[in-house]
Amino acid sequence: MESDKKIAVVDFGGQYSHLIASRVRRLGAYTEILSNEEGMEKYASYSGIILSGGPSSVYEKDSPQIAPEIFQLGIPILGICYGHQLTMKILGGKVESTGESEYGPAEIQILDSNISNLSRSLGRTEKVWMSHGDEVVELPPGFSNIGSTESCQFAMVSNESKKIYGIQFHPEVTHTIHGNTLLSNFIRISGCKDTWNLQEFIQKEMEIIRRQVGERGKVFMLVSGGVDSTVAYLMLAKSLGAQRVKGLLVDTGFMRKNEVSGLRENLHKLGIDLTISDESQVFYNALVAKSDPEEKRLIVGNLFLEAQARAVEELNLDPKEWILGQGTIYPDTIESGGTKHSHKIKTHHNRVPAIQKMLDEGKIIEPLRDLYKDEVRELGNYLGLDTQWTDRHPFPGPGLVVRMIATQREVDPAIEKNIQHFFQKEIPNFICKVLPFPSVGVQGDQRSYANCLLINQFSQDWNLLDKIATSITNKFKEINRIVLLPNNLNSIRFPDSLEYTELHLNKEHSDLLREADCITNQFIFDHKITKDIWQMPVVLVPCGREKGKFSIILRPVESNEAMTANFYPMKWDLLAKLCSEIQTISQISDVFFDLTNKPPGTIEWE
Ligand code: XMP
Question: To test ligand 1's pocket by mutation, which of 603, 605, 606 has the most ligand atoms within 8 angstroms of CB?
Answer without folding.
Answer: 603
